[in-house]
Every structure is written in structure tokens, then in C-alpha cells.
Amino acid sequence: MDEVRAVFREYAEGLGVDLCFQNFDEELRTLPGDYAAPRGALFLARVDGELAGCCALRPLDSADYPNAAEMKRLYVRKAFRGFGLGRQLAEAALDAARRGGYDCVLLDTLDDMEAARALYEDLGFEDIPPYYHNPIAGAHYLKADLWHSGPAPLSSRF
Hints:
One of its GO terms (molecular function) is acyltransferase activity, transferring groups other than amino-acyl groups. This protein is α+β, with helices and mostly antiparallel strands and 158 residues long. It has a single domain (2-156), classed as Gcn5-related N-acetyltransferase (GNAT) (Aminopeptidase), CATH 3.40.630.30. 28% of the residues lie in helices and 27% in strands. It contains four helices and six strands. Strands 1-2-3-4-6-5 form a six-stranded mixed β-sheet, sandwiched between helices. Strand 3, helix 3 (85-99) and strand 4 (104-110) form a beta-alpha-beta unit. The longest helix has 15 residues, at 85-99.
């Protein structure tokens, strides 16, 4: 888990915002925590053995969105951007959510994360009202219905 902690920290530092409102330090300390199977998942992308990116999925208990999962920590290191790794990681998380029987996946992102927001739109995510309090200005909340939109699961494309 040390490698996961390191890349999660790198992700957080790249945001330039304090994630204390998400209990980020506790998340790092207790990894895999909510990302543990069978209800959660952690994905690491490697290129020639080097850690290139990550993505995580966890159950989300929400009265507004029953049977939902939340995608977190989608990150690709700068040296590996532009090769589609972010898409592969996000699709892997969506596929895991489908296999896990979830109905939808929620996430939040920021205004300045333009490439990520374009990817999410391409994957079938749509804007929704906030599902939790995020004190960071410019937060966007998105949802993908797993059985009604987005790309076919990875397992059906091979």
C-alpha cells in the first residue's frame, strides 16, 4: 500500500487544494479501506513496470442515490499523459462497478480539470446536484448510470 499512498499524495499535491474535508489523511492511513474488494476496487496503471496512474472505486451510501459507487483519485502522472491511461483506468472502474452490481457511479471534479471533465462526459457522466459538501469553489458533481449510458463494459470489448 505504500506505493498507493505515494501516488495518492502526488495526486492531492497536484490539485493544489487541501483535501482535509474528505478525511484524506485517514484514507491514506487505512488503505485499502473502502476501496477493498468486494465492494470497492483500486486500480494501478504501469508502463514498463513504472507506476503511471491510479483510480479507485468505493461504495457510496446515499439516500439520493441508492446502490451507488463513487469513483475517486483518477490520476495519471505527467510523463504518462496523452496515451489514454486515464480513460483505461476510468473504464476499469466503471466495469468493476457494473460487475459489482452498482446502478450508478458518482464523482466530483474541479473546474480546472478540463481534460478529466471531457473524459467523464465522453464516458456518459452527467451533471447532478451536489451529493456531499465540497468547500472548494468550482466543484462539479457527476453521475453515470451504468445500465443506461456510457461505453460497453471492457469485458464485452475483448
